[in-house]
Amino acid sequence: MDLKSNHNAPVLTDSAPLSKSRLRRYHGLTLPYSPSGAPFSPNLLLSIPRRKTGVLDDVRSCGWLDAMKSSSPTHKKFAKDINHELSAPDPEVAYRTWLLKYPSALASFEQIANFAKGKRIALFLDYDGTLSPIVENPDNAFMSDDMRSIVKEVAKYFPTAIISGRSRDKVYEFVGLTELYYAGSHGMDIMGPVKQSVTDYHQNCIKSTDKQGNEVNLFQPAREFLPMIDEVFSSLVRITKDIKGATVENNKFCVSVHYRNVDQDNWISVWECVQDVIKKYPRLRLTHGRKVLEIRPTINWDKGKALEFLLESLDLSNCDDVLPIYVGDDRTDEDAFKVLRGEELWLWHFLYQNHRRKAMRITLSETQQRWTGYPKPEKRWESKIFVVYDDVCVNRGRSIDPFIMNLLAAR
Ligand SMILES: O=P(O)(O)OC[C@H]1O[C@H](O[C@H]2O[C@H](CO)[C@@H](O)[C@H](O)[C@H]2O)[C@H](O)[C@@H](O)[C@@H]1O
């Protein structure tokens, strides 16, 4: 997992050790992690209000069924959002106007390249829905050979990492590229470059070796939760076994309960099963993604924190000449978008349930974005928002490769 010497960013150089206050700023931590076996550091625990049933706030506010549905917004919802934004009564007119307002990223690539000029790029990629198509069976979410080659190529020039909700092993199995860094379980399992100051700071960060025998840093902030997650996984498999189409996936530090193939009339049963299990585990929380309910530890760690951790490990954080690019398509990716502010380039690739209206969004952000839905761009970013439309979306088999090709060409 060594970075190649021809990377624009010299990522393995260990600079002066980080001060604790600097690291705190990055990670929002006030204390190091508790040693394995000891109670988990209270500062990392998220305080998430629960009802007796254990229902999360966001699920509660719109009703669980709505929340499960909204995990893949329909075209209707998209049109409603656009209508609201543009005050146009006709969805079709609103959509076309929206397209004019947010031009194609590919057509605007020169502008993006200018912005990137002189900067060291670091690329962060989500897996499902970004590098691979969304498919019915999660075990079959393979990335294409073309996509693999292009990611391999880009990693020759820019440090590249995949940050996925899957287990790290699983996503590595799918991608199979040794030249990347991998963060699984929504960032709770990171294998990155060795950086002594990072290892020193994080108690759950240890030196390890990757499959090729290279020395790496292994960071697993939710290590204490492993037995709990295994237990929950087994319970969920047992309890959902009679719901046709429901599947449970062990993502090591989190568990996914898929309802994509469950008849909508039975979604309530899926929900109830999950509630039945997690109500016994106050240290676990529930989130939802694309037709999936995800059970994860209540720790203050997500894809955004993982991104910061990787930038730090790569010696690329807090540098004016670094341009991190994040490509993702899901709610969990918003955690990563949120940490990229200032002059970073954000890329949001979002897909719609009916696969008719898809777009990829690139935002050169000026400030932190607050997402409240799909897609509600803030006014002040208008001139810097680009969209890549249907024809390059992953579900049509072409995906983000033109964007990456352009990046390579512009370097
Ligand atoms: O962070 P990601 O890499 O995007 O992973 C998020 C979840 O992706 C997978 O589920 C999603 O993709 C499946 C395959 O296309 C699809 O069948 C499912 O409905 C989607 O939710 C993965 O299976 C989950 O474990 C990840 O958490």
Automatic annotation (TrEMBL):
Record key words, sorted: Hydrolase
EC number, as in UniProt: 3.1.3.12
Keyword Secreted found: no
SUPFAM superfamilies in UniProt: HAD-like
Annotated GO MF terms: trehalose-phosphatase activity
Organism (species): Populus deltoides
Family: Belongs to the trehalose phosphatase family.
Keyword Hydrolase among record annotations: yes
Superkingdom as given in the UniProt entry: Eukaryota
Pfam families listed in its UniProt record: Trehalose_PPase
Protein name: Trehalose 6-phosphate phosphatase
UniProt cofactor(s): a divalent metal cation
